[in-house]
Design a protein that fits this description.
heterodimer; A: about 90 residues; alpha+beta; Ribosomal Protein L30, Chain: A; three-stranded antiparallel beta sheet; about 40% helix; B: about 110 residues; mainly alpha; two-stranded antiparallel ribbon; 4 helices; 2 strands; about 5% strand
Amino acid sequence: MAFFRITLLRSAIGLPRRTTDVLKALGLKKRMATVFHPVSQSVAGQVMKVKELVDVQEVDRRLTKQEVHLERKPDPGYYVEKRGNAEFVEQTRE
Amino acid sequence: MFKPTSALFSGLLWKTPWRISQPQKARQRKRLRSVDRVVDTLSAALQRNGQSTKAVERWYAEMPREEEMVPKDKYTIFDKKEKTYRKGIHKLPKWTRVSQRVNPPGF
Protein backbone atom coordinates (compact mmCIF):
# COMPACT_ATOMS: atom_id res chain seq x y z
CA MET A 1 0.00 0.00 0.00
CA ALA A 2 1.36 3.39 -1.00
CA PHE A 3 1.41 6.44 1.21
CA PHE A 4 1.78 10.16 0.72
CA ARG A 5 4.58 11.62 2.79
CA ILE A 6 3.48 15.22 3.36
CA THR A 7 5.78 17.83 4.91
CA LEU A 8 4.64 21.34 5.76
CA LEU A 9 7.27 23.75 4.41
CA ARG A 10 5.44 27.08 4.50
CA SER A 11 3.22 28.33 7.28
CA ALA A 12 -0.41 29.26 6.62
CA ILE A 13 -0.23 32.43 8.74
CA GLY A 14 -2.31 35.18 7.15
CA LEU A 15 -4.00 32.84 4.67
CA PRO A 16 -7.75 32.11 4.68
CA ARG A 17 -9.05 30.19 7.68
CA ARG A 18 -9.97 27.20 5.49
CA THR A 19 -6.30 26.69 4.61
CA THR A 20 -5.37 26.31 8.28
CA ASP A 21 -8.32 23.97 8.76
CA VAL A 22 -7.16 21.73 5.90
CA LEU A 23 -3.67 21.56 7.40
CA LYS A 24 -5.16 20.66 10.75
CA ALA A 25 -7.27 17.95 9.11
CA LEU A 26 -4.09 16.53 7.56
CA GLY A 27 -2.41 16.62 10.99
CA LEU A 28 0.11 19.32 10.14
CA LYS A 29 0.42 21.70 13.08
CA LYS A 30 3.79 23.35 12.57
CA ARG A 31 6.40 23.87 9.87
CA MET A 32 8.59 20.90 8.94
CA ALA A 33 6.07 18.49 10.46
CA THR A 34 5.76 15.26 8.45
CA VAL A 35 2.66 13.07 8.22
CA PHE A 36 1.81 9.92 6.26
CA HIS A 37 -1.55 9.31 4.65
CA PRO A 38 -2.66 6.46 2.37
CA VAL A 39 -2.92 7.35 -1.32
CA SER A 40 -6.57 8.20 -1.87
CA GLN A 41 -8.70 10.72 -3.69
CA SER A 42 -9.76 12.54 -0.55
CA VAL A 43 -6.19 13.01 0.68
CA ALA A 44 -5.14 14.18 -2.79
CA GLY A 45 -7.96 16.71 -2.78
CA GLN A 46 -6.88 17.99 0.62
CA VAL A 47 -3.26 18.32 -0.51
CA MET A 48 -4.41 20.23 -3.60
CA LYS A 49 -5.89 22.85 -1.28
CA VAL A 50 -2.49 23.46 0.32
CA LYS A 51 -0.17 22.57 -2.56
CA GLU A 52 1.80 25.83 -2.24
CA LEU A 53 2.69 25.07 1.38
CA VAL A 54 3.68 21.41 1.38
CA ASP A 55 6.14 18.95 -0.15
CA VAL A 56 4.71 15.57 -1.16
CA GLN A 57 6.40 12.24 -1.87
CA GLU A 58 4.93 8.83 -2.57
CA VAL A 59 6.41 6.18 -0.27
CA ASP A 60 5.82 2.46 0.29
CA ARG A 61 5.28 2.49 4.02
CA ARG A 62 4.61 4.74 7.00
CA LEU A 63 7.78 5.76 8.80
CA THR A 64 7.67 6.17 12.56
CA LYS A 65 8.28 9.54 14.13
CA GLN A 66 11.74 8.38 15.25
CA GLU A 67 12.72 7.20 11.76
CA VAL A 68 11.77 10.59 10.33
CA HIS A 69 13.84 12.26 13.06
CA LEU A 70 16.87 10.06 12.39
CA GLU A 71 16.83 11.06 8.70
CA ARG A 72 17.46 14.65 9.73
CA LYS A 73 20.03 13.87 12.43
CA PRO A 74 23.55 14.86 11.37
CA ASP A 75 26.48 12.41 11.42
CA PRO A 76 28.07 12.68 14.93
CA GLY A 77 31.61 12.34 13.45
CA TYR A 78 32.59 9.31 15.59
CA TYR A 79 31.51 5.75 16.20
CA VAL A 80 31.46 3.74 19.43
CA GLU A 81 33.96 0.85 19.39
CA LYS A 82 33.18 -0.47 22.82
CA ARG A 83 30.99 0.58 25.74
CA GLY A 84 32.63 1.15 29.13
CA ASN A 85 30.56 -1.56 30.75
CA ALA A 86 31.56 -4.17 28.16
CA GLU A 87 35.22 -3.32 28.68
CA PHE A 88 34.82 -3.70 32.45
CA VAL A 89 33.21 -7.12 32.05
CA GLU A 90 36.09 -8.26 29.78
CA GLN A 91 38.71 -7.08 32.26
CA THR A 92 37.08 -8.78 35.25
CA ARG A 93 36.88 -12.09 33.33
CA GLU A 94 40.65 -12.15 32.70
CA MET B 1 20.55 61.98 11.96
CA PHE B 2 16.86 62.48 11.27
CA LYS B 3 16.13 62.15 7.60
CA PRO B 4 12.71 63.50 6.68
CA THR B 5 11.20 60.78 4.51
CA SER B 6 7.58 60.16 3.69
CA ALA B 7 7.78 56.86 5.57
CA LEU B 8 8.77 58.63 8.81
CA PHE B 9 6.44 61.60 8.43
CA SER B 10 3.20 59.74 7.94
CA GLY B 11 1.89 56.98 10.18
CA LEU B 12 1.53 53.82 8.18
CA LEU B 13 3.29 53.85 4.85
CA TRP B 14 4.62 50.69 3.31
CA LYS B 15 6.55 51.00 0.12
CA THR B 16 6.56 48.11 -2.29
CA PRO B 17 9.17 48.58 -5.02
CA TRP B 18 7.84 49.00 -8.53
CA ARG B 19 10.15 46.30 -9.91
CA ILE B 20 10.58 42.72 -8.81
CA SER B 21 14.27 41.85 -8.33
CA GLN B 22 16.19 39.08 -10.11
CA PRO B 23 16.53 36.83 -7.02
CA GLN B 24 12.80 37.31 -6.36
CA LYS B 25 12.12 36.18 -9.91
CA ALA B 26 14.38 33.16 -9.45
CA ARG B 27 12.58 32.19 -6.25
CA GLN B 28 9.22 32.70 -7.96
CA ARG B 29 10.24 30.21 -10.69
CA LYS B 30 11.40 27.78 -8.01
CA ARG B 31 8.03 28.02 -6.23
CA LEU B 32 6.12 27.53 -9.50
CA ARG B 33 8.17 24.40 -10.21
CA SER B 34 7.64 23.05 -6.70
CA VAL B 35 3.85 23.36 -7.06
CA ASP B 36 4.09 21.58 -10.43
CA ARG B 37 6.07 18.81 -8.75
CA VAL B 38 3.48 18.37 -5.97
CA VAL B 39 0.63 18.08 -8.49
CA ASP B 40 2.65 15.63 -10.62
CA THR B 41 3.35 13.45 -7.57
CA LEU B 42 -0.34 13.39 -6.61
CA SER B 43 -1.45 12.59 -10.14
CA ALA B 44 1.13 9.82 -10.62
CA ALA B 45 0.29 8.19 -7.27
CA LEU B 46 -3.45 8.26 -7.97
CA GLN B 47 -2.95 6.89 -11.48
CA ARG B 48 -1.05 3.92 -10.06
CA ASN B 49 -4.12 3.26 -7.90
CA GLY B 50 -6.40 3.63 -10.92
CA GLN B 51 -7.96 6.78 -9.51
CA SER B 52 -8.14 10.46 -10.33
CA THR B 53 -9.39 13.60 -8.60
CA LYS B 54 -11.36 16.51 -9.94
CA ALA B 55 -9.00 19.07 -8.38
CA VAL B 56 -5.95 17.53 -10.13
CA GLU B 57 -7.73 17.18 -13.47
CA ARG B 58 -8.92 20.77 -13.28
CA TRP B 59 -5.39 21.97 -12.49
CA TYR B 60 -4.00 20.22 -15.59
CA ALA B 61 -6.84 21.55 -17.74
CA GLU B 62 -6.59 25.17 -16.63
CA MET B 63 -3.11 25.91 -15.36
CA PRO B 64 0.04 26.10 -17.52
CA ARG B 65 3.26 24.55 -16.24
CA GLU B 66 6.22 26.72 -15.27
CA GLU B 67 8.11 25.99 -18.51
CA GLU B 68 5.01 26.73 -20.62
CA MET B 69 4.41 30.14 -19.08
CA VAL B 70 5.63 33.33 -20.73
CA PRO B 71 7.77 35.61 -18.51
CA LYS B 72 5.01 38.22 -18.63
CA ASP B 73 2.65 35.89 -16.82
CA LYS B 74 5.29 34.66 -14.37
CA TYR B 75 6.27 38.07 -13.04
CA THR B 76 3.31 40.37 -13.72
CA ILE B 77 -0.43 40.27 -13.14
CA PHE B 78 -3.38 41.93 -14.83
CA ASP B 79 -4.58 45.17 -13.23
CA LYS B 80 -7.31 47.29 -14.81
CA LYS B 81 -6.15 50.43 -12.99
CA GLU B 82 -2.63 50.43 -14.49
CA LYS B 83 -1.91 52.27 -17.71
CA THR B 84 -0.34 49.15 -19.23
CA TYR B 85 -2.91 46.85 -17.59
CA ARG B 86 -0.07 45.07 -15.78
CA LYS B 87 1.60 45.33 -12.38
CA GLY B 88 4.34 43.31 -10.71
CA ILE B 89 3.18 40.03 -9.22
CA HIS B 90 4.84 41.03 -5.92
CA LYS B 91 2.00 43.53 -5.46
CA LEU B 92 -0.41 40.61 -5.08
CA PRO B 93 -1.18 39.92 -1.41
CA LYS B 94 0.47 36.68 -0.18
CA TRP B 95 2.01 36.29 -3.62
CA THR B 96 4.54 33.68 -2.49
CA ARG B 97 1.81 31.33 -1.31
CA VAL B 98 -0.92 31.62 -3.94
CA SER B 99 -1.16 30.15 -7.43
CA GLN B 100 -1.68 33.02 -9.85
CA ARG B 101 -0.79 31.79 -13.35
CA VAL B 102 -3.47 32.85 -15.83
CA ASN B 103 -4.55 36.34 -16.84
CA PRO B 104 -7.41 37.64 -18.96
CA PRO B 105 -6.85 36.77 -22.64
CA GLY B 106 -5.59 39.69 -24.68
CA PHE B 107 -4.05 41.55 -21.74
